[in-house]
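Q: Convert this sequence to structure tokens.
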Amino acid sequence: MGLILVALTRRHRRAYPRRAPFNVSTIGRRFRSASWGLMEPLIILGGIFSGVFTPSESAVDADYSDTDVAALRGTAWDRCGAFWH
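A:
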């Protein structure tokens, strides 16, 4: 309770702006944009438990997938149609 009171007091004194109201479509968009990162533990653990790769190999896979997701973030997928066909 004490930490909540401290946080609320600081917010009031520093005049932090209020957040936007709760919106379900915003949560959907954010979840969709984070879907690759949220699937990564499932892919890694699924690969380990199914015997596809070892824990050491999964660490390399995690590193490369993080790099790939970071590189592809913000890519305009509608412009990549020729690449996929």
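The longest helix spans residues 55-72.
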